[in-house]
């Protein structure tokens, strides 16, 4: 080899060595740069603001930075086990797989999407994912690098912005007021539906117009000036009232609020206007002004004082001429001052009025007494209402002052008059009432209510027609009042609450309304029942007296005739033998004369022309003698019972006439019991009080001996009872009696200054009660007067009787003794009361003879309700007459009628205390 060639070869080797050294140096530099790069990458990877990870092709993570761990809340070990598909929201899996497939197939150079991940706690976050493929020089896919940015807050902000825009759009489109957006030239850029409807255009039509095109000609210049100032930046907003022209040509008043919209650089962008239709308000303001003008004119012309005050009570608004006239102060003297009529001593009261107004309340007729300017006192009523401003705040009040001085004086006089009237009304012994034309009772005093047995509450509102026995009486009475304006002393039968009838006398006058028509009647009612009864007794007494006078005269003349017949018959018989032919005839004439004499004697006894031969007599002794005679003469089928009181008081009596009374009554009873029965004769000491005396004309109050004769016979009706004591009145057949027996009894009793009553009903027997005055000096020896009453009590007693006077007497007796008394008018009512109050009713005082349901049937029904009920029978019959059956049925005692207070209380107390 040539040297030259060798040198060339050596040079080549040197060059290669140098190249290798350069390569080595470059390799060292590259490795160093690579390490530095790797360090920078690791720093960026580990500390970067994005979540980063390196994934194998199976999507497992081989590298995970701290941000990603923080972002998902898992540990690094947990994340290594989870692919990003495991963390993807189910709704985003399909989109994720689609983009991943495109990346792997190189259809896209990079994978970038916004999707949702689910954090460890279940929270959903929005992220932006960038996924890149790492390939080798041959293009083989080695790794996937994932960068994840949390955009949850951005997404939420976008959602809020979207919702805000939607709300704005909804408000803009659906606002009840008009909204527009205009440019610098005033052209509409955007309008809402309300503005279009307000002006009568479509939205598209308005977008081709300017705000000046739809403004009222008189308001165009003002609108243009204000708009130009906003465009030039001289103002940012303005508000004013203007007029628009509707498409129809009508005027629209609007309240317009305008604001400028400017860009970031402050340059004008657009103008937003809010337009409210105030056409109705403007019209209302116009009408209000008219109304205010009218109201002021009315206030000025009003005849009533009117004042307008602020909250402190100062006159600020109104002081009309009527107020000047009423109180004496002129308007210029009171404006801005406290209401001048309020003195210092009334300030506290006035402050209370102001506080009431401040709280929004009113004063409705508050009456005060104040002084006028001249010092005279005046009464007036205050009517005050709060005044409100535009924000409904109370700013004061308007007062109406009504002068009531004359009215107060009139009221005072009226009250005094009414008090007098009310006193007369309430205390009148006559019934006073007011009734409407249709019959409804509007007022009634206590006496009126007592007549009918109602409370005042039950009587008010009741139909007057219901009180009339005959409805035609009401029509006739009403017709007479309306014809003459009044009716006086009109007699009518009315019905009480319990159904019993009362005789009443009405005096009534028409009550007229303001139009002169009759609206009702006012009247006075007088209960004439007792008076009628007394009149009947008087008429009966007068009739009996007249009959007695007539009968006495006839008996006297009759006796003279009989004396002739008897005298001559005796002389003719003096020389006759029984065997003589004329003897029988003369003897018959003589006997007829004797019988006539007895008849005349009876007539004289009735007429009280036959004076009794009186002496002190104990009736028990006389009855003992008569009993033997009755036992011989009365048929055996009639049982005679004698019940004679111990310590019977003495009477002045003719023993023979007493015997005659008993025989006549016994014969009468015998005829009433053709099929047999029981004849009961009893005596008792009684006291007839003033109540009894008031209802019986010929009876004086005092002590009496009672002789009672009872039978269980056929009884008599009311018609027969009215005539039984009249001479020659009889219900017997021909040849069965003269009709003088009871007339003689009546005459004998009256001649002894006594009193006789007869109690009878068909089928219920008859009881005669004869009261003979007792001799005081005799009874002082037999009965010691202690002045003590029987024992009192507090029990509740039910008193049952169909006769009101007897109910009242019995009620007063029992109440006087301390008892609580319930009353009933018949057996049915008594049962109803007992059923409801049996727990507190200790005893029932029961009348035997009553309408609807008699005492005996009521007694049987009471025992069905309560087997232990305590009942005392009350009757005008003898306790051993018809009442004996009731006593046998379970009644615990008996009291006679009319009531003797001692007897009643002794029997009641004894029954109550009995076990």
Structural class: alpha+beta
Largest sheet, if any?
A: 5 strands, antiparallel
Count the E strands.
32
Binned strand content = 25-35%
Measured distance between first and last alpha carbons: 177 Å
Low-confidence stretches: 605-609, 733-737, 777-789
Mean pLDDT: 79
Percent in helix? 40-55%
Number of helices: 30
Q: What's the number of structural domains?
A: 7
Arrangement of strands in the largest sheet? 2-1-5-4-3
CATH architecture of the largest domain: 2-Layer Sandwich
Categorize the overall geometry: elongated
CATH fold topology of the largest domain: Heat Shock Protein 90
**What is the CA-atom radius of gyration, in angstroms?**
63 Å
Briefly, what CATH class of the largest domain? Answer: Alpha Beta
Question: Looking at this structure, what is the CATH superfamily of the largest domain?
Answer: Histidine kinase-like ATPase, C-terminal domain
Describe the overall structure.
With 915 residues, the chain is α+β, with helices and mostly antiparallel strands. The protein has seven domains: 41 residues; 110 residues, PAS domain (Beta-Lactamase, 2-Layer Sandwich); 108 residues, Beta-Lactamase (2-Layer Sandwich), CATH 3.30.450; 98 residues, 2-Layer Sandwich (Beta-Lactamase), CATH 3.30.450; 100 residues, 2-Layer Sandwich (Beta-Lactamase), CATH 3.30.450; 170 residues, Heat Shock Protein 90 (2-Layer Sandwich), CATH 3.30.565.10; 125 residues, Rossmann fold (3-Layer(aba) Sandwich), CATH 3.40.50.2300. Helices cover 43% and strands 26% of the residues. The strands form seven sheets. It has a five-stranded antiparallel sheet with strand order 2-1-5-4-3, sandwiched between helices. The termini are far apart.
């Amino acid at each position: 080899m040539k040297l030259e060639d060798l040198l060339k070869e050596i040079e080549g080797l040197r060059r290669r060595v140098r190249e290798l050294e350069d390569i080595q140096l470059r390799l060292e530099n590259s490795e160093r740069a690579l390490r530095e790069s790797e360090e920078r990458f690791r720093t960026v990877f580990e500390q970067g603001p994005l979540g980063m990870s390196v994934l194998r092709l199976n999507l497992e993570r081989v590298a995970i930075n701290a941000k990603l761990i923080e972002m998902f809340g898992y540990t690094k070990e947990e994340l290594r086990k989870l692919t990003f598909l495991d963390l993807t929201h189910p709704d985003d899996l399909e989109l994720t797989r689609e983009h991943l497939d495109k990346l792997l197939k190189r259809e896209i150079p990079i994978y970038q999407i916004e999707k949702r991940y689910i954090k460890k706690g279940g929270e959903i976050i929005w992220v932006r994912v960038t996924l890149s493929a790492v390939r080798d020089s041959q293009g083989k896919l080695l790794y996937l690098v994932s960068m994840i940015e949390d955009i949850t807050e951005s997404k939420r902000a976008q959602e809020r912005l979207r919702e805000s825009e939607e709300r704005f759009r909804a408000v803009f489109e659906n606002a009840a007021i008009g909204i527009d957006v205009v440019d610098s030239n005033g052209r509409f850029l955007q309008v809402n539906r309300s503005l279009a409807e307000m002006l009568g255009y479509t939205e598209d039509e308005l977008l081709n117009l300017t705000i000046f095109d739809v403004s009222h000609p008189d308001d165009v210049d003002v609108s243009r000036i204000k708009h130009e100032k906003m465009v030039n930046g001289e103002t940012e907003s303005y508000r004013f009232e203007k007029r628009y022209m509707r498409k129809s040509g009508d005027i629209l008043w609007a309240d317009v609020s305008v604001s400028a919209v400017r860009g970031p650089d402050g340059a004008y962008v657009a103008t937003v206007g809010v337009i409210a239709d105030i056409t109705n308000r403007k019209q209302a303001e116009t009408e209000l002004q008219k109304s205010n003008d009218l109201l002021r004119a009315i206030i000025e012309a009003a005849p009533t004082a009117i004042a307008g005050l602020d909250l402190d009570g100062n006159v600020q608004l109104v002081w009309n001429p009527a107020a000047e006239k009423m109180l004496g102060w002129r308007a210029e003297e009171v404006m801005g001052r406290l209401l001048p009529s309020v003195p210092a001593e009334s300030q506290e009261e006035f402050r209370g009025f102001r506080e009431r107004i401040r709280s929004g309340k009113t004063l409705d007729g508050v009456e005060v007494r104040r002084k006028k300017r001249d010092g005279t006192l005046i009464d007036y009523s205050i009517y005050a209402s709060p005044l409100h401003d535009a924000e409904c705040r109370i700013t004061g009040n308007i007062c109406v002052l009504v002068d009531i001085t004359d009215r107060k004086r009139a009221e005072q006089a009226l009250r005094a008059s009414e008090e007098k009237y009310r006193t007369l009304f309430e205390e009148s012994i006559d019934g006073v009432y007011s009734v409407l034309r249709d019959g409804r009772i509007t007022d009634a005093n206590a006496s009126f209510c007592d007549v009918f047995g109602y409370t005042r509450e039950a009587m008010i509102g009741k139909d007057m027609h219901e009180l009339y026995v005959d409805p035609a009486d009401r029509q006739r009475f009403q017709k007479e009042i309306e014809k003459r304006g009044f009716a006086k002393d009109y007699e009518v039968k009315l019905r009480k609450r319990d159904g019993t009838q009362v005789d009443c006398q009405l005096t009534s006058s028409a009550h007229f309304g303001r139009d002169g028509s009759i609206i009702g009647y006012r009247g006075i009612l007088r209960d004439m029942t007792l008076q009628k009864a007394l009149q009947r007794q008087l008429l009966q007494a007068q009739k009996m007296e007249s009959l007695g006078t007539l009968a006495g005269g006839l008996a006297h003349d009759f006796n003279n005739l009989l004396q002739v017949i008897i005298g001559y018959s005796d002389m003719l018989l003096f020389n006759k033998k029984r065997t003589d032919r004329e003897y029988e005839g003369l003897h018959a004439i003589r006997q007829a004369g004797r019988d006539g004499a007895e008849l005349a004697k009876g007539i004289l006894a009735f007429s009280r022309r036959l004076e009794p031969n009186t002496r002190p007599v104990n009736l028990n002794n006389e009855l003992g003698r008569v009993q033997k005679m009755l036992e011989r003469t009365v048929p055996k089928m009639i049982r005679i019972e004698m019940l004679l009181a111990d310590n019977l008081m003495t009477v002045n009596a003719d023993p023979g006439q007493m015997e005659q009374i008993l025989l006549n009554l016994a014969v009468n009873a015998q005829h009433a019991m053709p099929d047999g029965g029981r004849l009961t004769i009893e005596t008792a000491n009684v006291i007839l009080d003033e109540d009894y005396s008031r209802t019986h004309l010929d009876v004086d109050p005092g002590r009496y001996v009672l002789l009672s004769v009872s039978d269980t016979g056929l009884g008599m009706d009311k018609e027969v009872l009215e005539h039984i004591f009249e001479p020659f009145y009889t219900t017997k057949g021909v040849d069965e009696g003269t009709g003088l027996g009871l007339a003689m009894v009546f005459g004998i009793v009256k001649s002894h200054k006594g009193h006789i009553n007869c109690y009878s009903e068909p089928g219920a027997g008859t009881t005669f009660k004869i009261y003979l005055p007792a001799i005081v000096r005799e009874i002082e020896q037999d009965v010691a007067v202690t002045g003590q009453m029987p024992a009192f009590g507090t029990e509740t007693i039910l008193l049952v009787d169909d006769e009101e006077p007897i109910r009242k007497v019995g009620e007063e007796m029992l109440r006087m003794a301390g008892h609580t008394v319930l009353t009933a008018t018949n057996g049915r009512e008594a049962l109803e009361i007992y059923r409801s109050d049996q727990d507190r009713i200790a005893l029932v005082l029961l009348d035997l003879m009553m309408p609807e349901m008699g005492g005996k049937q009521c007694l049987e029904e009471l025992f069905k309700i309560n087997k232990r009920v305590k009942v005392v029978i009350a009757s005008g019959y003898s306790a051993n007459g018809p009442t004996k059956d009731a006593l046998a049925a379970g009644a615990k005692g008996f009291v006679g009628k009319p009531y003797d207070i001692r007897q009643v209380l002794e029997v009641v107390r004894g029954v109550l205390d009995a076990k």
